[in-house]
Amino acid sequence: MRRSITTLVSMLLLLSVAFASTTVYVTKTGSKYHTSSCRYLNKSKIAMTLTEAKRAYEACSVCKPPR
Ligand SMILES: [Zn+2]
Fold first, then answer.
1. Is the pTM of this model over 0.85?
2. 12 CA to centre of ligand 1 in angstroms
């Protein structure tokens, strides 16, 4: 039992690290964040972490970045 809790906790930690380091992109004027390959990024492409982006932007419905 104790072992499975430890495993669960370390998995959650790994997950949060993975999410914190995900890079997404926003444009100068847009209100959505995108994956690097999205076609909406042709005007401008500003990189930030997913955590930062989620504070001020919404996920793009075309390229479907992680939420
Ligand atoms: Zn997009």
1. no
2. 27
Residue-level pLDDT at 36: 94
Q: How far is the CA of 35 from the centre of ligand 1 (A)?
A: 6
**DSSP 3-state of 21:** coil
* CB atoms near residue 1 (< 10 Å): 5
Interatomic CA distance for residues 22 and 1, integer angstroms: 32
Q: How far is the CA of 5 from the centre of ligand 1 (A)?
A: 37
Give distance in angstroms: CA of 17 to centre of ligand 1: 23
